[in-house]
């Protein structure tokens, strides 16, 4: 099924965000095969740098490195999909400054909720950074359920186990962007979290 046909934002209501950078990838995904959803922050300012773009997108350079750090020898988004991972962002537009506006996270959490609902076999959600954590908590709050990820630094809470219903949820770190290449400790922890997610899938 083509992803763009299932979710879209027609009104683009958000302010202080790069609405011109809004898009949903026009890719075909076997929804039944996906077991792990990895949610990053926002779209890149240049669409050619997104996970599913052709060539050598910047997002994939650091993401492939994250998977390789975990021991998975992957070279492309297609191979990552074959392993049962689906990559997306919490916000479907690019950001203007350093931070992502709260209202944009809230608004886009409705799209993320639709996106989550179309994957029937998701067993793990990996929240790659604070924006993704906040987006999932907005979804849960709307459903009048208990907060999935508590407040606190990712470093302190990531060793605990969190569940949203039958789905295991891993709070982790953003694996895209230049900062990821610098912070070796975060690279190590992201690799650990990917390994934990894979082990959980194999055990369940």
Could you explain how this protein is built, in words?
The chain has 204 residues and is α/β, with parallel strands linked by helices. It has a single domain (3-203), classed as Uracil-DNA Glycosylase, subunit E. It has helices at 58-69, 77-82, 102-117, 130-142, 154-157, 178-182, 184-203, and strands at 17-18, 36-43, 85-95, 124-128, 162-164, 167-172. The protein has a 6-stranded mixed β-sheet, sandwiched between helices. Helix 1 packs across helix 7 (184-203) and helix 3 crosses helix 4. The mean pLDDT is 85.
In CATH, what is the class?
Alpha Beta
Poorly predicted regions: none
Q: How many alpha or pi helices? A: 7
| CATH architecture grouping | 3-Layer(aba) Sandwich
Q: What pattern of helices and strands is seen along the backbone?
A: EEHHEHEHHEEHH
Per DSSP E runs of 2 or more residues, the count of β-strands stands at: 6
Give the end-to-end Cα distance, rounded to a whole number of Å.
26 Å
Write out key terms for the chains shown:
6 strands; Uracil-DNA Glycosylase, subunit E; alpha/beta; 204 residues; 17% strand
Helices and strands in order:
Blueprint: E1 17-18, E2 36-43, H1 58-69, H2 77-82, E3 85-95, H3 102-117, E4 124-128, H4 130-142, H5 154-157, E5 162-164, E6 167-172, H6 178-182, H7 184-203
Parallel strand pairs: 2-3, 2-4, 4-6
Antiparallel strand pairs: 1-3, 5-6
Helix pairs in contact: 1-7, 3-4
In short:
With 204 residues, this protein is α/β, with parallel strands linked by helices. 37% of the residues lie in helices and 17% in strands.
């Amino acid at each position: 099924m083509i992803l763009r046909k299932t979710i879209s934002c027609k009104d683009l209501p958000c302010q202080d965000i790069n609405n011109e950078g809004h898009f949903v990838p026009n890719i075909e995904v076997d929804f039944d095969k996906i077991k792990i959803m990895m949610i990053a922050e926002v779209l890149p300012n240049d669409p050619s740098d997104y996970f599913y773009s052709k060539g050598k997108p910047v997002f994939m350079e650091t993401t492939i490195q994250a998977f390789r750090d975990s021991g998975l020898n992957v070279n492309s988004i297609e191979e990552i999909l074959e392993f049962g991972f689906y990559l997306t962002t919490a916000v479907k537009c690019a950001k203007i400054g350093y931070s992502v506006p709260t209202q944009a996270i809230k608004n886009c959490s409705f799209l993320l909720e639709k996106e989550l609902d179309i994957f029937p076999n998701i067993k793990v959600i990996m929240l790659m950074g604070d924006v993704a954590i906040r987006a999932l908590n907005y979804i849960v709050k709307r459903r009048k359920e208990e907060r999935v990820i508590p407040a606190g630094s990712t470093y302190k809470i990531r060793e605990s186990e969190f569940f949203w219903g039958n789905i295991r949820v891993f709070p982790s770190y953003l694996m895209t962007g230049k900062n990821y290449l610098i912070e070796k400790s975060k690279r190590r922890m992201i690799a650990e979290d990917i390994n934990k997610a894979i082990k959980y899938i194999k055990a369940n």
